[in-house]
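User: I'm putting together a small comparison set for a docking exercise, and I want a reference complex before I start. The sequence is below, and the ligand is flavin-adenine dinucleotide. Could you produce the 3D structure with the ligand included, as structure tokens?
Assistant: Of course. I'll restate your input first, then give the structure tokens for the complex.
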Amino acid sequence: MIEPNRQGEVWVFAEQEDGTIPDVVLELCGKARALADQLGVKAGAVLAGSDRGSLPAQLIAHGIDNLYVVEDKRLEHFQTSPYTRIVCSLIQKHEPQIVLYGATALGRDLAPRVASEMRAGMTADCTDLQIQDVTDPRTKQVHENLLLQIRPAFGGNIIATIVNYDWWPQMATVREGVMPLQEPDLARSGQVIAEPVELDDSLFPVKLIERHIEPRTVNLKGARVIVAGGGGVGSRDSFKLIHELAGAIGGAVGASRAAVDGGYIGKEHQIGQTGTTVRPALYIAAGISGAVQHRAGMEESAKIIAINTDPEAPIFSVAHYGIVGDMRKVIPLLVKSLKER
Ligand code: FAD
């Protein structure tokens, strides 16, 4: 366990694969920048790999002041032990007060191992982060500028705010797409600091024999328009109507969990708490009740149109436009009118 350093930086673990940084890391750089400004400290990031390429410029343009780089040929692909060693030794050396990770497969692997090694706290799958003074109910002591780690809990029925009074650094993984991706500022400057971290061969017990990358067939995150179908669609056959409307309007196809569980469409299309979080310009929800777990993944959409037979369906509370009606009748009419335009 390490002592709190109130002047410590706000860090992002800049995961990368094949020289590409996922959007969630860049989203976190913007958030780290905002949190660091509020705390009056610098924003930092840790980048590890075999070749930094042009990634430092990208991270700095998204808000990072100090970038700590560890380069080693053996770090070409992620492995848990050496990456844990790198992050822990840099935390010990620089004492950041906050460390953020994307809630990706890699982040979900690395963050808890770092937390365990550092005897620090960690909250998984946050959807928001804020800084606030908090009173410890046990001691009545006021802790200034703690990180509020906000995430859905109990199946999404409540939003929990988690604070960490005793364990430092404060660490969280954050879901992709819940924080806005800020425009890069190419005029920003920052420091790139090469970090010599000793990594002996015993930290690389895994030998990579072959990599197989599944092509990404569904790009819900990048879609400007999404047409999503739910349990109310009723069958895999009727789900063709959702594909038809998406085709006519040039959108991607999304789904609620009921539609996925019903076998109408694959899990990769699921939107919500345990699916993808999206923020398209237009989201059309057909036959979706609007359960809190679904809304968690789509309610930040710029415009929402809901089609539902039940006028009391909760989806109407987040919709900008509502159509009370049978989607099997409404969608063909919409497709017809779109095709006539
Ligand atoms: P239903 O609840 O079956 O609702 C169907 C809706 O369609 C109703 O409102 C009905 O009025 C309407 N309808 C029926 N017929 C028609 C018709 N012909 N035309 C128009 N409307 C019609 N859910 C998700 O979506 N995403 C998640 O990521 C997710 N994660 C979860 C995680 C946990 C831990 C838990 C506990 C649950 C999760 N759920 C998730 C499930 C969630 O609670 C709901 O069960 C689910 O969202 C319901 O899907 P639905 O609204 O499509 O189906």
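Residues 155-156, 230-232, 256-259, 270, 272-275, 287-289, 291, 293-294, 297, 307-310, 313, 326-328 surround flavin-adenine dinucleotide (CB under 6 Å). The longest strand covers residues 142-153.
User: Thanks, that's exactly what I needed.
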